[in-house]
Fold this sequence. Notes:
There is one protein chain. The protein contains 8 helices and 10 strands. The chain is of the alpha/beta class and 220 residues long. The protein has one domain (8-217): Aldolase class I (TIM Barrel, Alpha-Beta Barrel). It has an 8-stranded parallel barrel with strand order 1-2-3-4-5-6-7-8, surrounded by 5 helices. The relative contact order is 0.18.
Amino acid sequence: MEAASHPRIKICCIASRAEARLAVDAGASALGLVGAMPSGPGVIPDDLIAAITLGVPPPIATFLLTSEQSVDGIVAHHRRVHTTAIQLVDRLTRGTYADLRRELPGTKLVQAVHVTGPESLDEAMALAEYVDALLLDSGRPDMPVKELGGTGRRHDWQISSRIRQEAAIPVFLAGGLHAGIVREAIEQVGPFGLDVCSGVRSGGSLDPSRLLAFFTAAGF
């Protein structure tokens, strides 16, 4: 896709209705709500995800971050929370994306690709045919305890830029973003959207001043 000079911003690791309101008031286009994970920050119970989702006004998108790898597990997880999108943070190993679309019509599918090296370009291109967007992150799914996001690490943006250029679907950029580097990220990668968690937090909580600094640096 063409480079975006004014990307959408997704605030991830939303932990309460108050944080959701704060992010929306700041200008967020989407909120990330983290389900059970093997590691990483921001995990909240499914009943809280459902409660937060109910209070989010349209057209703000709500993303369920799920580590489930089977169609049955993903569908069951989504039906407990009813977000507008599902962010698969790990590989789908049982069932197909077509199965997911059949079971959850109208729900957007966003696949995370953890950019670990040049091979991630081939992985992204293979997945782009089946989902509505890609999210390029800095996890390490091959670790003994999987890292599936929320690492606060930056990956190789040259690879992310190539994925954005070659993909025919929107690309979100995640991984270590904060106000000090967000303009560089926009200029170098040109993503459709930016995804940020730790870069707008202090002591684990959403920080209004860091949130404002991020949006300002991004050109809002």
